[in-house]
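We modelled the chain as a single entity of 408 amino acids. Its sequence is:
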Amino acid sequence: MDPLNVTAQPVYDNRISKLEIHAYNPYANASLGNSDEIRIPIQQQDLILLPSGSYLYIEGKLIEGTRAADTPLLDKVMLDANSMTFLFDEIRYELNGIEIDRYKNVGITTSIKNLISLSTEESMSLRHSGWFIETQDSENVTNNFSFCVPLHMLLGFCEDYKHVIMNARHELILIRARNDINSIFSSNKFTDSRIELYRVQWRIPHVTLNEFTKLQFLRIIEQNRNLTMAFRSWELYEYPLLPETQRHTWAVKAATQLEKPRYVILAFRRNEKNDQYSDVLKFSDCDVRDVKVYLNSEFYPYDRLDTDFTKSRYSVLYDMYVKFFNSYYAGERLSKSMLDYLNFLKYGPLFVIDCSHQNESIKTGTVDVKIEIECWKNIRSNTTAYCLIIHDKIVDYNPLTNIVRNVN
């Protein structure tokens, strides 16, 4: 703004005349039990919707199982951190019947993504979504619950694509987990604890435009143009049982040019899968000394990490974690990363590797992604490795013909 332009008039954005949140329910015969498929459709096509502002409304009850005879009465079963996402094994977003974005193992995927990308303020403001760090907080000890989980926490499409979508059929598909163990935390022995869901709704903003803007949108439709939706997709790979060696090479995937990794996040966990006595947000260091991500012949990072957690030598890892925040959001957010130096070790550590700057040698053909892991001693038994790959994705859709196409 020009400080000398004293005659400037205020400008108001009146393009949107109304913004309303509408709730959509699953099909009438849908069941919300374990392993069930929950499909939430929006069939009406003459709408202008804002998926990035939508959220899941989840209502239910935590049912305490059988209490062991020696369990103190004060001890209770509680909802675990990020509990609502662990209720689902899979989430899919479809536009005109074409899959736009999809994730399996929703709980682990969102846990890793949130730990590296949420700010301190955002983390505190998301308690109503079921996201909280300390599971032992007495406020979380409850039986009946209701949570609003923003879709930008669940889908890369809703985090990155901030525009409205017009003249399209939308559908959100959720697959309930086989059990609720990962959503439950207990400090003592309870068995058969479970979560019963009463309601799952998709609440999404409906946008009503003023007459001038509506005319502009109609002209876009009449031009029969393909509209491009670009976003970053999150893809989780799991190595269930790492071999008990000091060095291991993990061939993760062969990626197309568009889906080649921009960021690779590696996390480890020991003996804590499907365990209601462990904190699902806490990963393990596994005595890792160095990690290398190979994209064909190129490797990241260039220097050795040479971490040693027994000697508190992990500052390089924390520096990579902090720099991710500015790199991923391109300086758009000035907030601080959620985990401070000490909590980074408590809840991680996470190996956050930036592969976004790539040379010509990996800009043609397929890209083989592999990870080399080096530890100070043999990896312990029952250790699981998780690799979260963040890559670009582009979808074209035509609001006149309703054709949706994934761009490879």
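As a brief sanity check on the tokenised model: Residues 135-141 have pLDDT under 50 and may be disordered. Residues 51 and 158 are 6 Å apart (CA to CA).
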